[in-house]
Amino acid sequence: METKEQFKKTHLGRKISRIREIRGIKQDALAMELGLSQQTISKIEQSEDVDDETLNKISKALGVSSDAIKNFNEEAVVNIIANTVNNHDQSASVFISPNFNPIDKIVELYERLLKSEQEKNELLNKK
């Protein structure tokens, strides 16, 4: 049976693997970039712990910070990658473009807040 401590413990290798997959980078391409073998990358991705020096090199090659790897969750990493795409090999990049206009969303939110405030004022005036 797993304890809460075991459940909370991070598996950095899996996080590295997932980020690499999100970026569309194969193990052998990452290995070449780092001057390692594909087998070494595979071993790192199977490891629960990764030393800081290796983690820093991998994070740089993946285009994310080492903190992003340590604190990995799908949504955060996708946002970080979208904001820090600086890889010269565009085939390995992930581009995210929203299918909505952010200004429209801000106006919509403002209108909902305004309507909510008007409703509150109406209730207070009735008393």
From TrEMBL:
SMART domains: HTH_XRE. Residues 16-69 form the HTH cro/C1-type domain. Keywords: DNA-binding. InterPro entries: Cro/C1-type_HTH (IPR001387), Lambda_DNA-bd_dom_sf (IPR010982). Pfam families: HTH_3. It comes from the Bacteria. GO terms for molecular function: DNA binding. PANTHER family: HELIX-TURN-HELIX DOMAIN PROTEIN (PTHR46558:SF15), TRACRIPTIONAL REGULATORY PROTEIN-RELATED-RELATED (PTHR46558). This is DNA-binding transcriptional regulator, XRE-family HTH domain. It comes from Pedobacter suwonensis.
